[in-house]
Amino acid sequence: xxSIKAHSAKVFRHLLALMPEGHLKLDNTAGTxxxxxxxRLTAHSGFEAVYCVSxxxxxxxxxxxxxxxxxxxxxxxxxxLSFRNDYVGVxxxxxxxxxxxxxxxxxxxxxxxxxxxxxWFKNIAHQQELKL
Length: 132
Prior knowledge:
The protein has helices at residues 6-17, 107-127; strands at 23-26, 36-41, 49-59, 62-74, 77-85, 90-93. By secondary structure, the chain is of the alpha+beta class.
């Protein structure tokens, strides 16, 4: 499986440390950039915890994910599990949850999402002026 890189994991852990209640809305930029939203979700089989990291915009009064990603925590590593961007109509899942078959892991997609997340976490750290 493909996890995010060490620097991204450091940013992720920093965000988690700021969310003692199970959720976080962080906007250190007074609206210059979209706030980052972090939530702890119900656990997914095989992971210690699952988290959602999101940016949201608004279109015609509706909240739009830009993007919304979920990550599974396992043995200290964060693994991308899903990606959603409402503006372009993309909704992708790394693990299939078909009841009639064993869950399948799309490793190619997971690698692509890990690469995107590494860039995104770098941007989040810069935009939110995180002191790591």
